[in-house]
Design a protein that fits this description.
This protein is an alpha+beta fold. It has 12 helices and 6 strands. Helix 11 links the parallel strand 2 and strand 3. Its EC number is 2.7.13.3.
Length: 464
Amino acid sequence: MTDSDATRRPTAGPPTGPSGPAAVPVRDGAPGDGTDTGPSDGGSAQGGVPAPAGGGLVGGGRRYFSVRGGEWAFAVLGLPLAVGGGAYALAVLYAGTLLSLTVLGLPFVVGALLGARGLGALHRGLVGRLLGEHVEAPAALPRSEGLLARGRTVLTDAVAWRTLVYLLLRLPLGVLGFVAAVGLPLGCGWLIGFPLWGRLMEPDSPPAAWLDAVSVLLGLALACGVPGVLRALSGANRRLAGFLLGPAQAQRRVRELETARVALLADSGDRLRRLERDLHDGTQARLVALAITLSLTEDALEPATGPDLGRLRTLLDRARRQTDETVAELRLLTRGIHPVALDGGLGEALPGLTATSPVPVTVRLDLTERPHEAIERAVYFCAAELLTNVARHSGARTAVLAASVRDGRVRLTVRDDGRGGAALGAGTGLAGLAERLTAVDGTLRVDSPPGGPTEITADLPARL
């Protein structure tokens, strides 16, 4: 078990890490490619992590009362679809049960399941457009030869059955959403205006001051609760759609692995081509120059008047210098294939990696066991890229790298006090890193609000 907490303060050097240029590549570009973007807030004297400014309660209150227009529209416009979808699902289950004893039972259920898939696509579009929740479309039905095979495929389609379950659960949520978006505001208006309504309907009766006060207070209390209820129902609709209308967990995992495999194959091909180019243009040229120098040395040994010692010494010095340069270049090219620092495990490799960062990095390690070799390599290259991004893009003054191995999981966390605003986006270094972690069943989580601090966590299994 290794437990170190030392702050590395190097004097200079680029943030390439021990892996050199062959480490996991960082896609340079906009500041958003790194771990941080946006203006810096500065940091505290001790940890370098910026303290939150005042007004946190005010910001939280604003977020509570800020309900998107799409959420109101979904609650209102989604009611007809919710009622229609729920009625469709109930009718399918009821009629399918009654017709199951007849010849018409199976054809009816097959057609109903195909219709359920269409309704699922309609609800996915509504959730994406109004609630901003992108739900990935499930895979299409596999093509089967023959009517019976086609019917069997539809009857065993998990996507259609899950869509029916969604339509059933969407019915009460749709009714509650409409009540929250329309019924509650109308009720609040009636309660707040109750003193006026009472005087208009019964102008001769004495006013009940306590009843008027209770009515107004109750109306205001309900009005304050409307945004929270609407936001909670919107969140429930997002989760329900993502869970039941998207691909099944196995299908989603297959797609993730396919995407990660394509990314790894492309990256491996790029590395091989880059290594081939470097060997051809660099190392091979140096070896050719060395061979020419040795040929000239041989010529200097066989003149008619005897060896030319001065020229021979010059040629030998040149050959020795060329040999040293070739060995150094070969060592640089092979360093990224398997970093020598990993021979002693992450406990030795990660502190050495942080020592090359121009940003002071505090290292915290809790390694109770040694992970698989491929996992160690993935963690090492992940740490190298994250520290590189911190140095290039964040504007951070300090950073913390923590790694632990517990309960069969490896967790790597890099935290800095920079500008914040990092996100997983298409074409960024973080997106490519997340794809590579997916290939070893790992995940990457980014927590980087504007102004910082940024905390990026990679979670991987200790064994493949």
